[in-house]
Automatic annotation (TrEMBL):
Assigned GO CC terms: membrane
Residue ranges of domain Aspartyl/asparaginy/proline hydroxylase in the record: 170-331
Chief place where the protein resides: membrane
Chain coiled-coil ranges: none
Organism whose genome encodes this protein: Acipenser oxyrinchus oxyrinchus
Entry keyword Transmembrane helix: yes
Location relative to the cell: Membrane
Membrane topology: Single-pass type II membrane protein
InterPro entries documented for this protein: Asp/Arg/Pro-Hydrxlase (IPR007803), Asp/Asn_beta-hydroxylase (IPR051821), IPNS-like_sf (IPR027443)
Alphabetized Gene3D superfamilies for the sequence: B-lactam Antibiotic, Isopenicillin N Synthase, Chain
Protein name as catalogued: Aspartate beta-hydroxylase domain-containing protein 2
Pfam families assigned to the protein according to its UniProt record, in alphabetical order: Asp_Arg_Hydrox
GO terms of molecular function: dioxygenase activity
Length: 349
């Protein structure tokens, strides 16, 4: 049966002709067809509206006002919890640039030609409709770069989600703590400098420093040489995202009195894992409105595409909160999809 708009018009016209003969079954048919016609118009209207949001024209994601400020250099403060670094190498900070969606689709087509389209249904759907997905996501979960549709969503994940890697990390807690202490300088002497491999992050209150072994899918050789055992542990993880821009591994340090602004992560294809190394009291992580506390020697898994924040309300005597942060694949992203996403989001592509 032809369910096009012209076909429905013909059916409605035929039904109206039968009404003149006062046929009861014809009246029921006309009523059903009218309802179907109204539903069809409603669906068409919704799809057109969703595919053409204010910030999405002709398949091109138009930069937001925040990203335009960043490109002009007018916005000096943090945006969504991190400072725009203006670096062409930083995928996250330049992800809002014009033409991104076309580049993603080109990368997917290139991958399919070189390998296969098999198993690419969700990835193709996500890349094709990325502008609509990002524009229509609810405020509780809104990844800023890439959304893979049809993934189960939850602010937190159980240890069983990536059991092998969780257990390996927890067994490695003494090793990771020792290597952290070897590279960490006390906050009192203010020696956490970029030349020593430390990165200062923008926060409204306090200090948040990170020591990256892998930053956006790229190893940091100087830091990896200083933490060789931690780097070997990363190589033993089965689900570590080490080959695309969504993968990171670092020591993350919050000083007492620090608040990280609420923000969203770049994608829902990963799970962020925090292994507690030093956890004083009065520290908390809030993801999707649900608070959780870290535990020393234990892993806490969460989806950072949900709105999240963290804070350390302890005193100077409590010392810093320290976690080893690793990005793992979402358990429901299939192997073929992981391979394709590694290709599409290869650093520098």
């Amino acid at each position: 049966m032809d369910w096009s708009l012209d076909g429905l018009r013909d059916l409605v016209a035929g039904g109206m002709h039968a009404v003149r003969d006062c046929d009861a079954s014809a009246l029921a048919t006309v009523s059903c067809l009218l309802l179907l016609f109204v539903w069809y118009c409603y669906r068409v209207g919704r799809e057109q509206a969703a595919s053409s949001p204010r910030s999405y024209r002709a398949g091109v994601l138009v930069p937001s006002s925040a990203s335009l400020l960043a490109e002009r250099g007018d916005g000096e403060g943090p945006q969504n919890g991190y400072a725009y670094c203006h670096s062409p190498e930083c995928f996250r900070c330049t992800a809002h640039s014009e033409g991104r969606n076309q580049r993603l689709y080109h990368n997917l087509q290139e991958y399919a030609k070189r390998y296969t389209w098999a198993g690419m249904g969700r990835v193709h759907k996500g890349v094709r409709d990325q502008g609509r997905y990002l524009a229509s996501r609810p405020s509780i979960q809104k990844p800023e770069v890439f959304f893979l549709p049809d993934l189960p969503t939850s602010p937190y994940f159980s240890r069983e989600a990536q059991k092998h890697d969780v257990e390996l990390l927890e067994r490695s807690w003494p090793v990771l703590l020792a290597e952290f202490e070897a590279v960490h300088q006390t906050f009192s002497n203010c020696s956490l400098s970029p030349s020593q491999g430390w990165k200062a992050n923008s926060t409204p209150h306090g200090e948040w420093h990170t020591f990256y072994l892998v930053n956006q899918g790229v190893s940091v050789p100087q830091n990896c040489r200083r933490c060789p055992r931690a780097y070997r542990i990363l190589g033993s993880l089965r689900t570590f995202i080490g080959n695309n821009v969504f993968g990171n591994a670092c020591f993350s340090v919050l000083s007492p009195g620090t608040l990280i602004t609420e923000h969203y992560g770049p994608t829902n294809v990963r799970i962020r894992c925090h292994l507690g190394l030093k956890i004083p009291s009065s520290c908390e992580l809030v993801v999707g409105g649900e608070p959780q506390c870290w535990a020393q020697g234990s892993c806490l898994l969460f989806d950072d595409s949900f709105l999240h924040t963290a804070f350390h309300e302890g005193s100077a005597e409590d010392g810093p909160r320290v976690v080893f942060m690793v990005d793992l694949w979402h358990p429901n992203v299939a192997a073929a999809e992981r391979q394709a996403l590694d290709y599409i989001f290869t650093p520098g592509r």
